[in-house]
Automatic annotation (TrEMBL):
The keyword Ion transport does not apply. Keywords: Membrane, Transmembrane, Transmembrane helix. It comes from the Bacteria. The keyword Membrane applies. Residues 23-273 form the EAL domain. Coiled coil: none annotated. This is EAL domain-containing protein.
Length: 275
């Protein structure tokens, strides 16, 4: 197949060039995107299974660019991480999310995703303090989500950053649990209050006894270690039933609610509905 000639090569190379060119264009457009007001946050409710009520909402970043329209965070966040723009964008997200959550009922928290780049920045505690102080949000109501892969890159730095965040009394969540390569022993080494089980395990709950066993083991272990568990990406009633049986603490997913604009969340908490 490799020798199938020029025809195939010339089909392949432009596709690569296009990818590189789009990446270059998005990187350029990310400059000034904050100033142009192109970002906004949507919020996805997280439901407590025991109380059957919303206990927090995860803030998810949206970018609508003047030239490229809506760009997925899965595409632009890695670019912003590579060129360092994630720091300014991440600070904006943190401030914006705290500002919005301050007006929610006091028992509702807000979960914010932290990039590995932000976790490694030495001024992270100062940035978090500033977001809390300027908005007046109680630190207990701020949950910071970091992915498993971060921990392996630099164990000592990650540990120090997480300890500093815990001293501020904010909640730390290990996101996408099960997708990385970290040992279970990491759960005892790193100070997380919450463990978020990755969507890949939740999806498989419908048909895979092995996944049920894995999720049950994770929930039981987390409980023994004093951590709460959240299952993400719940899309079917069968998955929800299974998660109830495992005694997972909380669930999040399209079955329960999609990410929504801040004013819809506020209206929901106020007991009214926007039309
Ligand atoms: P994540 O932190 O794992 O967030 C969950 C993603 O799953 C979100 O995608 C959410 O919209 C989606 N989701 C929620 N429920 C369901 C479901 O039932 N089924 C399916 N198929 N998907 C569901 P989104 O908003 O596109 O974000 C993708 C990723 O981008 C996030 O994954 C997170 O890693 C990153 N991200 C989003 N916002 C931020 C941010 O403000 N800062 C940083 N550093 N990363 C962010
Ligand atoms: Ca997350
Ligand atoms: Ca996640
Ligand atoms: Ca995920």
């Amino acid at each position: 197949a490799k020798e199938s000639g020029r025809g195939q090569m010339s089909l392949y190379e432009p596709a690569m060039d296009e990818k590189i060119e789009r990446r270059r264009q998005l990187a350029a457009e990310l400059h000034g995107a904050l100033q142009r007001g192109e970002f906004h946050l949507v919020y996805q409710p997280i439901y407590d299974l025991a109380g059957e009520r919303i206990t927090s909402c995860e803030a998810l970043l949206r970018w609508t660019n003047r030239r490229h329209g809506a760009v997925s965070p899965a595409e632009f966040i890695p670019i912003a991480e590579d060129n360092g723009q994630i720091v300014a964008i991440g600070n904006w997200v943190l401030h914006q999310a705290c500002c919005t959550a301050r007006d929610w009922p006091a028992h509702i928290s807000v979960a914010v995703n932290l990039s590995p780049v932000q976790l490694r920045a030495s001024n992270l505690p100062a940035v978090v303090i500033s977001a809390l102080d300027s908005t007046g949000l109680a630190p207990q109501r701020l949950h910071l989500e970091v992915t498993e892969s971060v921990l392996l890159e630099d164990v000592d730095a990650s540990l120090a950053a997480l300890k500093a965040l815990n001293r501020l009394a904010v909640n730390t969540t290990l996101d996408d649990f099960g997708t990385g390569y970290s040992a279970l022993s990491y759960l005892t080494r790193f100070p997380f209050q919450t463990l978020k089980i990755d969507r890949s395990f939740v999806t498989d709950l419908d048909h895979s006894p092995a996944s049920i066993a894995i999720v049950q083991t994770v929930v039981d272990l987390a409980a023994k270690l004093g951590m709460r568990t959240v299952a993400e990406g719940v899309e079917t009633a069968a998955q929800l039933d299974q998660l109830r049986r495992t005694r997972c603490d909380a669930v999040q997913g399209y079955l329960l609610a999609r990410p929504m604009p801040a004013d819809m969340v506020a209206a929901m908490f106020a007991g009214t509905r926007l039309r």
